[in-house]
């Protein structure tokens, strides 16, 4: 199993090109199921999760053609994927693949909308909490679906004549449920309104693509989305938006190590909450167009409290990275996790670097220390992996990160990107 070796204690300096967003690419790929014409996705990141979903779509009969395009000298650019769902051979998504990645469950919406039925395994993914799918199921039931749970599978059947528009108010904000129900509603009869919908940029990106395919969606990016169903969606070409979590992660790496790093091809408006908190901690973050320059002089970071929230609040996907940043800050930082109940598994690994963190239910109290020291650590999930890389970059001495397959799910060529900025980082087979 691959490991990453880091010799830390060096400031980062240079430019890092931000890849297309994993959390946008996956629902966009799923949207191909809603049409019998080709969907072409550009700026696609080269990630394990993308390959896993492509395999699942192929199992359903989707023709996939991936062009692995060369990256520019600064690492910019992405792949091009053509998806053609004209000849679907199955509406069953197997446990083998869905169990590997939660986003695979999103195929339920377009499959039942277009074909009237779907059988999808209950999902897997990172072990960061229950993340139940009842919001998806209740939403589809509101649209007339008959739902059956059988041996770990969700079996959905649309009513005769297809899904029916409905007003669906979610008790909780769920990005996955918003994706799934928006795709289903695009092909339903009549008007569907999603209340308390997720406002994430990735939701708006999916809506933009669906509208280019002929859907009639208004309000994406707000808490109320109106979808007027159409009979058919056609093909289109769509560019995946930049990854805000990758942007925030590299920004925090630069802040943690010191030096100066310019992040290119970003969407600064999508990570304003993270930039605000970093500035409060004493980090300089200058925005110019689609570039963000992060720098920190020799002064020590200041402790800042953070509460994770749904978008546009501070993202849970940057909580572990920010906690790492606070491990060497002056003072005491309180980090409250409100989204996922098991998302503090990185704490014990950060302690191996010498971090001083105490847990109190959904709160982590980080007492800043002068410095971290390299250590052997183990990644527990995708975002925790990034946090351990950041700690390793700043720590004195050698760090070995085990189970780095998590990283490959969400960070494209992380060793190359950091290495271009002076990091001493390598992958060990």
Characterise the protein shown here.
With 429 residues, the chain is α/β, with parallel strands linked by helices. The chain has helices at residues 22-31, 48-59, 95-98, 108-115, 134-142, 175-185, 201-212, 244-257, 272-280, 319-326, 347-352, 382-394, 405-410, 414-419; strands at residues 3-7, 12-17, 39-44, 63-67, 79-84, 92-93, 117-121, 146-150, 153-157, 167-169, 191-195, 216-218, 224-228, 236-239, 259-264, 284-288, 291-296, 306-307, 332-336, 356-360, 363-367, 376-378, 398-402, 424-428. It has 2 domains: 3-18 and 242-428, Alpha-beta prism (UDP-n-acetylglucosamine1-carboxyvinyl-transferase, Chain), CATH 3.65.10.10; 22-239, Enolpyruvate transferase domain (UDP-n-acetylglucosamine1-carboxyvinyl-transferase, Chain, Alpha-beta prism). The chain contains 14 helices and 24 strands. Strands 22-23-1-24 form a 4-stranded mixed beta sheet. Strands 2-15-17-16 form a 4-stranded mixed beta sheet. A 4-stranded mixed beta sheet has the order 4-5-3-14, covered by helices on one side. A hairpin with a 5-residue loop joins strand 12 (216-218) and strand 13. Helix 1 (22-31) runs parallel beside helix 7 and helix 6 (175-185) runs parallel beside helix 7 (201-212). It is globular. 51% of the residues are buried. The model is unreliable at 125-131 (pLDDT under 50).
């Amino acid at each position: 199993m691959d490991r990453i070796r880091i010799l830390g204690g060096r400031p980062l300096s240079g430019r890092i090109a931000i890849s297309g967003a994993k959390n946008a690419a996956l629902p966009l790929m799923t949207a191909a199921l809603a049409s019998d014409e080709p969907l072409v996705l550009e700026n696609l990141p080269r990630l394990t999760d993308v390959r896993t979903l492509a395999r699942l779509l192929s199992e359903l009969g989707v023709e996939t053609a991936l062009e692995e395009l060369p990256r520019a000298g600064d690492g910019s650019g992405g792949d091009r994927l053509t998806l053609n769902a004209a000849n679907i051979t199955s509406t069953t998504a197997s446990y083998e693949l869905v169990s590997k990645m939660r986003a695979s469950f999103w195929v339920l919406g377009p499959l039942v909308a277009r074909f009237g039925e779907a059988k999808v395994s209950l999902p897997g993914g990172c072990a960061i909490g229950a993340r139940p799918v009842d919001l998806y199921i209740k939403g589809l039931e509101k649209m007339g679906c008959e739902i059956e749970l059988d041996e770990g599978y969700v079996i959905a059947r649309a009513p005769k004549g297809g899904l029916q528009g409905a007003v669906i108010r979610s008790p909780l904000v769920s990005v996955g449920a918003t994706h799934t129900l928006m795709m289903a509603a695009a092909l339903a009869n009549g008007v569907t309104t999603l209340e308390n919908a997720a406002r994430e940029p990735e939701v708006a990106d999916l809506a933009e693509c669906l509208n280019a395919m002929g859907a009639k969606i208004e309000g994406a990016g707000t808490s109320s989305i109106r979808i007027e169903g159409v009979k058919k969606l056609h093909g289109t070409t769509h560019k995946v938006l930049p990854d805000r979590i990758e942007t925030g992660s590299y920004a925090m790496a630069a802040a943690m190590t010191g030096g100066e790093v310019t992040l290119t091809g970003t969407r600064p408006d999508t990570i304003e909450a993270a930039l605000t908190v970093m500035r409060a901690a004493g980090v300089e973050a200058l925005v110019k167009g689609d570039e963000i320059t992060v720098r920190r002089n020799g002064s020590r970071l200041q402790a800042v409290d953070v509460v994770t929230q749904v978008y546009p609040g501070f993202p849970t996907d940057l909580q572990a990275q920010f906690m790492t940043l606070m491990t060497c800050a002056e003072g005491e930082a309180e980090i409250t996790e409100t989204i996922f109940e098991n998302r503090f598994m990185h704490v014990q690994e950060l302690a191996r670097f010498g971090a001083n963190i105490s847990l109190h239910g959904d709160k982590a109290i980080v007492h800043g220390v002068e410095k971290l020291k390299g250590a052997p650590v183990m990644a527990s999930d995708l975002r925790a992996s990034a946090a351990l890389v950041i700690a390793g970059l700043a720590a004195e001495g050698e760090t070995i990160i085990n189970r780095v397959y998590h990283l490959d799910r969400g960070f494209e060529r992380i060793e190359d990107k950091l290495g271009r900025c002076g990091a001493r980082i390598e992958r060990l087979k």
